[in-house]
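During the no-cost extension, the postdoctoral fellow (Dr. R.K.) reprocessed legacy sequence entries with the updated structure-token encoder. One reprocessed record is reproduced below for audit purposes.
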Amino acid sequence: MDENTNYFETNKATWNKKVAIHAQSEMYDMEGFKLGKTSLMPYELEALGNVEGKSLLHLQCHFGQDTLSWSRMGAKCTAVDLSDEAINLAKKLNTELGLDAEFVCCNVLDTSKYISETFDIVFTSYGTIGWLPDLKPWAKMIAERLKPGGVFYIVEFHPILWMFDYNEGKPEMKYHYSQDEVIYEEYEGTYADQSSKMVSKEYGWNHGLGKVVNALTEAGLQIDYLNEHDESPYDVFPDLIKTEDGLYKMKNQLFPMLFEIKARKI
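Re-encoded structure tokens follow.
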């Protein structure tokens, strides 16, 4: 058993504990979601447009709200996540809402061991790649799961944000932009409910934009675009200010908060 297996087991235990807390949180607005509110944000909606009739694979789906939002828009969805508690809740929501998404519990790096079909779209968003020690097998799996001409889309927090430690209130620059060594954090609460008493124990890795782009191109994908944005749809970092369009940004912001990449399999 390698070190990464231990890291993944710790992360899985933490994410299993987060599920019930997140499902009741204001951020995930479960009541509104069940009544038909989409959980998808402007960036991904604009990037992927009309998904009706398309097959979509959602990586690291948590408990499936985004998957089910794509499903409501007419996509035929399959999704994976490391947390069995999350997948169990996703399956319950799928049944309750009368949708036809499929959910698989596995490490995202093992997706091709569990899913053999190929897809028109592979999608992942907001806080996903930092849980992976190496992006090359991730990108290889994405290429395996895409049909020729299929689209991969990621919208993710900018790697500059992960250079800081936020646990002492004031952000402190502590980590390298593209750090090979694992980063361990232990803190009380969770991004969706900071008053929660649960203790998060998490292992993560920082990946610079060069690593992300090179992993995808080495796997055979062609980059359509790489965009960087100042505004986040989520209020998950200290002292953010809500803008007129309902997104969040930093006061005196000096670097982007998000990046998005759209690529395709040739």
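The chain has eight helices and 13 strands. Residues 3-23 form the longest helix (21 residues). The remaining legacy entries will be reprocessed before the final report is submitted.
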